[in-house]
TrEMBL record:
Family stated for the protein in its record: Belongs to the ABC transporter superfamily.
Regions crossing the membrane: none
Species this protein is from: Micromonospora sonneratiae
Basic and acidic residues composition-biased segments: 302-323
InterPro entries attached to this UniProt entry: AAA+_ATPase, ABC_transporter-like_ATP-bd, ABC_transporter-like_CS, P-loop_NTPase
Sample GO molecular function, one term: ATP binding
Keywords assigned by UniProt, alphabetized: ATP-binding, Nucleotide-binding, Transport
Name of the molecule in the record: ATP-binding cassette domain-containing protein
Annotated region described as Disordered, given as residue ranges: 301-355
Domain ABC transporter span(s) in chain numbering: 5-236
């Protein structure tokens, strides 16, 4: 599989009079290979949008090396722009135009055959609503229209920043199906999100970023397997006694009210045998497999706050080297040989551009 996106040691610091100096990217690395549906995960403010904007030349990096479809980015992006579709900032459409007319105009402007309009409307599930004005579209329909506009040129690579934002569960499901269809048709998709369950369903690969650094990357199944602590939920009539017996058998037991969680287990037979031999019959013995949500929380150490978005202030936990990058810690590369120095941005208007 060839690399479709390569990012090495990307750094970006924003300077603003109001908020001072902020390091958005602190030596970030990412590799997306051809045919992947690659999830780009991180808490709010971890650097996802800055990465994508930098990759597309919308923000200038301080340093780092990037390639897109084999060409160095952003300087050589114009040579691959026809093979690339991206929705990084919500595109604005004319509310009085219909979806179909909007796409027709974009197709004409881009020299794309008008037959593509019907194809992309179909692909994003808007064919029956194509003659309604955009101002009457729901947020989800506007998102789909945006995706349709990016699909007009049949891109090999589609980059979507938080495409599920603001969508209801049905809209999220449709977006998910659409991405699966695109991948099945051979496209590579990079999708950033903080909706972890969705990423787990949609994506085959994942990169998790925290505070501007990559904390883990790889196939979703490998990342999850790396966090499998061999835990089992155990229900018995007398959990306190069961806990005692299991501890006496050298097992790590956590009492959780009406059930126990036993960790670091190779074979659950150890539980049923230990308890059965003492006349305690097991009612439930369920393996607890990690999901992306728990992996994400462990890596970024950001328990969601009931009334607030995810927090980013806590330190990244680095106590388990096997679960992190090969170096055993979030990557903070020193000088990368041959890295292109792109110059430093020290403009207060960066702040203005964002707000
Ligand atoms: N134009 C800007 N000016 C000043 N600071 C910025 C600018 N853009 C991003 N930042 C800061 O850089 C950091 C990373 O922001 P970024 O938007 O890349 O995060 P994110 O992971 O995309 O977050 P979210 O999920 O909330 O979109 C944050 O601290 C943010 O405040």
């Amino acid at each position: 599989m060839g690399a479709v996106i390569e990012i090495e040691g990307l750094r970006k610091t924003f300077n603003s009079l109001r908020r001072g100096r902020r390091t958005a990217l602190d030596g970030f690395d990412m590799l997306v290979e051809s045919g992947q549906v690659h999830g780009f995960l991180g808490p709010n403010g971890s650097g996802k949008t800055t990465t994508l904007r930098t990759l597309l030349g919308l923000v200038q990096a301080d340093s780092g090396r990037m390639t897109v479809l084999g060409e160095s980015a952003p300087d050589r992006l114009p040579t691959v722009v026809d093979r690339l579709g991206a929705i990084v900032e919500s595109p604005q459409f004319f509310g009085n135009f219909t979806g179909r007319r909007t796409l027709s105009l974009l197709a004409t402007a881009g020299g794309i055959p008008s037959t593509r309009v019907e194809e992309v409307l179909e692909q994003v599930g808007l064919r029956d609503r194509g003659d309604e004005r955009v101002k009457a579209y729901s947020l989800g329909m506007k998102q789909r229209l945006a995706v349709a506009s990016a699909l007009l040129k049949q891109p090999e690579l589609l980059i979507l920043d938080e495409p599920a934002n603001g969508l209801d569960p049905a809209g999220i499901r449709e977006m998910r199906d659409m991405m699966s269809d695109l991948a099945a048709a051979g496209a590579t998709v990079l999708v950033s999100s903080h909706i972890l369950a969705e990423i787990q369903h949609i994506c085959d690969h994942v990169t998790i970023i925290s505070r501007g650094r990559r904390v883990v990357a790889g196939p979703v199944s490998d990342v999850l397997a790396g966090f499998d602590r061999g835990e089992f939920r155990v229900r018995v009539d007398d959990p306190a006694r069961a806990a005692e017996l299991l501890r006496a058998a050298d097992l790590a037991v956590d009492e959780r009210g009406d059930h126990l969680v036993v960790a670091d287990l190779d074979d659950p037979i150890q539980i049923s045998r230990t308890l059965g031999e003492q006349g305690l019959w097991v009612r439930e013995l369920t393996p607890l497999t990690p999901d992306l949500e728990s992996v994400f929380l462990q890596l970024t150490d950001t328990e969601p706050h009931p009334d607030a978005p995810r927090q980013i202030d806590d330190p990244v936990r680095l106590d388990d080297p096997v679960r992190l990058d090969p170096a055993g810690e979030p990557q903070v590369p020193a000088a990368v040989p041959g890295r292109i120095e792109l110059g430093t941005t020290t403009a207060d208007d960066e702040e203005g551009a964002r707000e």
